[in-house]
Amino acid sequence: MGAADIGLKRMSWPALVSVVVPTFRRVERLPTLLARLSVIDQACDLDVIIIDQTPGADLSTLQGFSEHFACLRFISLAQANVSRARNIGAKAASCDILLFLDDDMELERSYIPRVLSLMREMPLDVFGAVWPGQGVIGRADGGPLAGRGDDPLIFLPTCALAMHRRDFLAAGGFDERLDRNFEDAEFSHRLKQQGLRLVRHPDLQAQHHDRQENGTWYSRSLMEAAARLMRQTAYFRRKTGRGWPDVLLALLRVIVSETRRPGYLRGGTNLTRAAALGVSLPAALIYAARSPLLAHAPSSSGRAG
């Protein structure tokens, strides 16, 4: 996979939570991220794993943060793929509890003891955070997310997602075919199929300092971005149980919406965006027929109880 472990500090005492952070072309954010993590309660119980996908990044200046955590490791990944980065981080984790975190998140001071308590009380739940200004996704009152169990649009974003490692493995991990978009929604879909509840809990407060730059927003060209968006849309719809007519309709909607009011594509004119998306449609349908690329074969028994 082109991954190389360049750990700065090995485990000096047992950790309780493995924090998995993928990052891509955002090296400048890492000192702020680690500084924020270092001052929260039970920071010394964290196994922090940064999976960096930035070519030629120099992370040696971050060694000083290692004193705050049970372990601080950096893994270099040669090719950017957010799902693969999370899978590699989860495999390297030393703890049963995983906390997937984006590089622009800031946890409320008592986040770790609270998530540990909640996971002891509700072992069949997967937890997401609540932050100011977040759009409503299901319930934020401590109950399970609302909506049909098979609705792939009811999901927990992976910017702050806590779960047991055993459940991660049972679900198969993230699908590496979804390397930039929809990977959290598709993963949540499989978690629900395993019998797990998705919960946004008001005790888990965080701040999402979202800046839509670099990371999954980084694209070399309009054509590359259009092709990737069409592939990811088609694959996601197909792998969450949608038929081919629905997949085709979803792609046509993407073409219309991104042509008129682009949300993902950067630059270009209405005509060039429409052309780039339209040319990408046949390849997107072919891509949607591919088999999943998971970290592990998912369990067929689930964990419903």
Automatic annotation (TrEMBL):
- What sections of the sequence does the record tag as coiled-coil? none
From the Swiss-Prot or TrEMBL record, give the protein name.
Glycosyltransferase 2-like domain-containing protein
Q: Which InterPro entries match?
A: Glyco_trans_2-like (IPR001173), Glycosyltransf_2 (IPR050834), Nucleotide-diphossugar_trans (IPR029044)
**Entry's Pfam families?**
Glycos_transf_2
Q: Where is the Glycosyltransferase 2-like domain?
A: 18-133
